[in-house]
Write a structure and sequence with these properties.
- The chain is an alpha+beta fold.
- It is 36% helix and 12% strand.
- It has a three-stranded antiparallel sheet with strand order 3-4-5, with no helix packed on it.
């Protein structure tokens, strides 16, 4: 376009009431028209001379990828049982927790959870009964009763999160939030503590017949090994 033609065009635009401001074209007294919008640009819409409405043609979530925190690594350390807790104790505890619908998994994995060693295969499923706070409270009570220990340098919540999954197959998180155990779960937790507290040398007359037969059957070899 020639210089004089451009000048004439600008004068015509000015007389028509259209103002030119930078890269934006402001239209006046135009009804239901939208300025041309290039890809990634901004269009101006005027309706009966009202205040221009800015339409951004770019859409996004507004959340940067850098804002998303990477998942923290799973802690593969395990808990450590005291010497007075025998294999038979853990078998009975596993049977009770699975029968009551609290956990799911293999007995060997459950026992590995109390090995006190790293990288053990302990994958288990928390069935969600009474909430995750109940899982934490169960193990807190076992620690309080001096039946198991958390190895130095580790936390109970991180160890449990490293070995327990939910019903959807996701590793548990947020166990350090301090969620309380459900009141209905507390008597069951105490029963679990009692299972691990019974001494192999306790009076068998104080135990019911079903428990005594199960205890003796599972602890026979383990008891001999501890007494050597």
């Amino acid at each position: 376009m020639k210089k004089e033609d451009l000048q004439a065009a600008l004068e015509a635009i000015s007389k028509s009431g259209i103002q030119v401001a930078g890269d934006l074209v402001l239209e006046k007294n135009v009804e239901y028209e939208v300025a041309n919008v290039e890809e990634g640009g901004i269009g101006i819409q005027i309706v009966n001379g009202s205040t221009p409405k800015v339409v951004n043609s770019k859409k996004g979530s507004g959340k940067k990828d850098s804002d998303e925190k990477p998942p923290k690594p799973r802690e593969l350390m395990t808990l450590k049982r005291r010497s007075k807790v025998l294999d038979g104790h853990l078998t009975l505890l596993f049977q009770k927790l699975t029968k009551d619908g609290w956990i799911d998994g293999f007995e060997a994995n459950f026992k590995n959870l109390f090995s006190g060693q790293r990288d053990e295969n302990c994958q288990l499923t928390w069935k969600g009964l009474y909430g995750k706070g109940t899982l934490v409270e169960l193990f807190k009570q076992l620690i309080k009763a001096e039946l198991i220990d958390v190895p130095t340098g580790f936390t109970l919540s991180s160890i449990l999160e490293g070995h327990f999954m939910d019903n959807q197959g996701h590793w548990l998180t947020g166990l350090d939030n301090g969620d309380p155990a459900h009141s209905k779960a507390l008597p069951v937790i105490q029963e679990c503590v009692n299972l691990l507290k019974i001494s192999p040398d306790a009076e068998r007359d104080n135990l019911d017949d079903e428990f005594r037969s199960e205890y003796d059957r599972f602890d026979q070899q383990d008891l001999h090994w501890h007494k050597r």
